[in-house]
Amino acid sequence: METERRILTREAFDSLLQKAVAAGQRAYGPKDLDGRIDFAPIARLDDLSTGHVQTTQSAKFALFPKVEELFSFHREGNAQVLDEATEADTPETLLLGVRPCDAAAIASLAAIFNWDTRDPQFNRRLARTTVVTITCTHADEYCFCTSVGGGPGNSTGSDLLLTPLEGGTYLAEVLTARGQALLALVPESSTPANAVDKESRLACVPSRFTAETVTAKMAVAFDREGLWREQSLRCLGCGACAFVCPTCACFDISDESNGIQGKRLRTWDSCGFSLFTKHTSGHNPREVQSQRWRQRLMHKFVYMPDRLKVLGCVGCGRCSRSCPVDMNILEHVTKVAEVK
Amino acid sequence: MEELRKRARELLATGEVKVVIGYGEGSAGRIRPLFITDPAGAGVLMFDERCLANLAVYLLKAEVKQLGKAAGTAPIRNHSNGLQPAAESQVSDETVRLIGVADGKAVDLPTLASAEEYVASVSLEPAAEEKEALARIERMTMEERWAYWNEQLSRCLKCYACRAACPMCYCTQCTVECNQPQWIPVPATPLGNLEWHVMRAMHLAGRCVGCGECRRACPIDLPIDLLTKKIGEDVAAGFGLRAGSSRKLEYALSTYRPDDREDFIR
After folding, report:
1. Which of A34, A317, B155, B241 is the most exposed place for a label (fewest CB within 10 A)?
2. Is the ipTM of this complex over 0.85?
3. Buried b / exposed e across A84-115, counting CB within 10 Å, b at 16+?
């Protein structure tokens, strides 16, 4: 659909949120939690943090939660009965105040969860999620969305894209029917935006490399063991980077059962863990951290564009900000791009 | 700082160590661990109040061990000396050498014995703000405490950054990874998280040096350091043993003495 541009007052935005919550949507937005900004349930616009660059965690929890029940099972007499999660178990979700990089990450997740099998849980959640993005007026040195096809005002993945203007109003770009329906909760409250200069409001995020160069150079760098060892010697092999990442989608499956009833759960996993590729035999094809670190970058910059036609990195910088030992993905990928 | 670099250069040039593990400038004003193998590269080593990370974790990392004998930069007041790993036979004078840092000055610690001697002159007790944080929890009723920890730990993502950053979590197979039987639930559910953190705290009982690295590593700032610090204080009070004080420390939970003052154990 053609993008419609409207001006939304702060009051109208607040009213929109409250009406959506009243209508039964679970709304999440960036909130100040004792100094740490992260997604939490919100009910009013005042709950929303402003002025932050990025939340600690990504918004992927709404589509791919840290723990998800795939189905439960129980015994009735001699029969095994399966209870699968249904539409009714999937709540309508409003993600409000995500950044453009988070909205763009939905395409990466959707590509993974629809690669060879259409994942029912993920797709049900996606169909019931409305994404209201607030563009970035600030960035920090960890941000690099412009190097991976995004930008501080990018609309990919958003239903409604808001840009804060002077005087507390917002430029609202209506991108989908879902966005339109959301804005219709406050009819008459928005006015057409004619000559609003959106670009001048946006943060400056310098482009540091092109994704195509990185994808090509990864093949050259693949066998440079020294490079990967140097980059990853300080890596502790924890899963912080993968768990805060908006596109990392590796998961583990486990059953919790007492023999009579139980459930099958899907939980986040990480290629940085040494156990991730360990075989039952004891053999581990990625036995040292440098191979695991290389895998992380290969997956994001080579395997995903190759197989899924989408990058596995949106340049949000969360992994770098959360790394306990300052592994900086921008710095490391830039080094790869410079490999001769 | 120049003194620290000079020591590092000498140790590498003489071949006494193959790698110096230290601190360097990272991104956005942060500090990052550095591994210096060439004396000419020692100029980037630094030390200031931001250097809190416990680098002893690297003394036990396979990829670092492969480099050969390591010199670890150890901020003494931050309990980051290598004595607890030594007490558990994970490092020795053959594999590590410490460069202590106290009050911004390099302190030469050629052997673990000299490190122990030095540590005897400094307090390894929790800092005042850590004691206050422990006291705040102790003032809670049992119900309040239960609610507090349930609320905090239910947020855990099970990324295991706490375990990865902890120098004393060096098991090659963690209990949480045993699945025959599955002692600890894998999923990051409130129960799974609670069991994981209680198990971790118990396994670190009296072994935790109180460096706080688990909390610093946690991406969502869970106050999990308080669990092991509290048990550490209990062990210090009940057994007179404090982790990080000696290279031959007995482990309170696995030591038996025929003359134990408690009747029930005899």
Report:
1. A34
2. yes
3. ebeeeebeebbbbbbbbbbbbbbbbbbbbbee
